[in-house]
Design brief:
Elements: H1 2-5, H2 11-16, H3 35-42, H4 50-61, H5 64-67, H6 81-90, E1 93-102, E2 105-112, H7 121-129, H8 153-162, H9 169-173
Antiparallel strand pairs: 1-2
Length: 176
């Protein structure tokens, strides 16, 4: 189904095609969520809140090498539902099969179609939203640890107030 939405039509053609349906916005995907998944996707970081605005301001003040993949900039909470769907639909991989292997275990097979393909984090988020856990991800030789957020709103507010970007050393030396 994912590939049906991505058929050989480019963005300009999509914008001019009156019959085009956006795979994220034009379908009622939330109808497929159970109560556990609904609760999962309600726990997201609000980028439009005061805290979210501070996040963006601090990100702009911070050198790229200090914000790229640093746990301080991993926001607390889960992925936004529509953002996760968008990442799945735009990921460079083909979903092959979902196989139930045991009563309580299954395997999702997918094939990356490009390098880099963007990873499987959006698929992991979808699987986790239904209360499942990932026991193995073939994307890495070893199970990648879940990176917990080190976001500190009070520290972020102070850095923005001072016009200072984040550096990892601040987490060890900061006193408010």
């Amino acid at each position: 189904m994912k590939d049906e939405f991505r058929k050989d039509i480019n963005l300009e053609d999509k914008q001019n095609d009156l019959n085009y349906k956006d795979p994220v916005d034009d379908y009622q995907w939330k109808n497929y969520l159970d109560e556990k998944a609904i609760a999962h996707f309600k726990n997201t970081f609000d980028f439009n809140s005061e805290e979210g605005i501070i996040y963006w301001k601090l990100l702009e003040l911070t050198e790229p090498e200090n914000r790229l993949d640093h746990p301080f900039f991993k926001t607390p909470g889960n992925w936004d539902f529509e953002s996760m769907l968008d990442a799945i639909f735009n990921g460079y991989y083909v979903l092959i099969d979902l196989v139930k292997e045991k009563r309580d275990r299954g395997c999702l097979y997918y094939q990356p179609t490009a390098y880099p393909f963007g990873g499987s984090d959006s698929l992991v988020e979808l699987i986790k939203s239904f209360g499942n856990r990932i026991t193995y991800n073939s994307r890495s030789k070893h199970s990648k640890p879940v990176i917990e957020s080190q976001w500190d709103y009070e520290l972020a507010k102070e850095l923005v107030r001072q016009g200072i970007g984040f550096t990892p050393e601040l987490l060890h030396n900061w006193k408010i």
